[in-house]
Amino acid sequence: MTDRPPTFYGTDPVSRAWRREQMEISNDIAGLPRHPHGVALVAALDALDLTDAQRIEAMTAYFRALAAAQDEADR
């Protein structure tokens, strides 16, 4: 068998998917709400096949822009 089990630190798609699933389970247990566009955002990032660093940068930019738009709307 050549397939290795997923890991917390692996950059392979199986490890990423496993970590995402673990995060979703933990958030559900904690009762944290899901972002309404989160599934679409993750799917778009998956389709782009970005590195972990690129994904972090893209998600950070998205949520910063979202927070700035919310701040502007609150004024």
Describe the structure.
The chain has 75 residues and is mainly alpha-helical. The radius of gyration is 15 Å and the shape is globular. The mean pLDDT is 87. It is built from three helices and no strands. Helices cover 69% and strands 0% of the residues.
Question: In percent terms, what proportion of residues is strand?
Answer: under 5%
Low-confidence stretches: none
Biggest sheet statistics: none
Order of SSEs = HHH
- What is the tally of beta strands? 0
The whole-angstrom Rg is 15 Å
Q: What is the straight-line distance between the termini?
A: 58 Å
Mean pLDDT: 87
Gross geometry = globular
Keywords:
69% helix, mainly alpha, single chain, 0% strand, 75 residues
In short:
The protein is an all-alpha fold and about 80 residues long. It has helices at about 15-30, 40-50, 50-75. About 70% of the residues lie in helices and about 0% in strands.
